[in-house]
Amino acid sequence: MTTSNPRSTPRHLTTGAQGEDLAARYLRNQGLVLLSRNWRCHEGELDLVATDGRKLIVCEVKTRTTTDYGHPAEAVTPEKANRIRRLSRRWRAAHHVRWCPERFDIIAITWPRNAEPTLQHFPAAF
């Protein structure tokens, strides 16, 4: 029998999951209702899908421990933004949601080891 060792999980995956937890709490505290988290299809994954009751809000979460290689939000390239838009259409089809107003946000988190995280929300980032 093989058991999972938490220490064997790559640190970047743990950091990313912690960042998504923080982002989800932040969005709920802003009054949004989370509809999906880490929704996957064959084309990729949406981190967080939420609503404010009027529009669908698709949120890409980027968490980094440092800004040595740039700000976390800079990781959302035009190609990545286009893929997220395509995935949003797939999410709506899978959940039988007809066209509705959408907003695409980025939540950028810098979370140095042994320090408090900094969260920046960029509504309508792309």
UniProtKB/TrEMBL annotation:
Q: Which GO terms describe its molecular function?
A: nucleic acid binding
The protein's matches in InterPro entries, at most eight in alphabetical order, are given as: Restrct_endonuc-II-like, tRNA_endonuc-like_dom_sf, UPF0102_YraN-like
Question: Which family does the record assign?
Answer: Belongs to the UPF0102 family.
Q: Which NCBIfam families match?
A: PRK12497.1-3, PRK12497.3-3, YraN family protein
For this entry, the protein name equals UPF0102 protein BLA60_23870
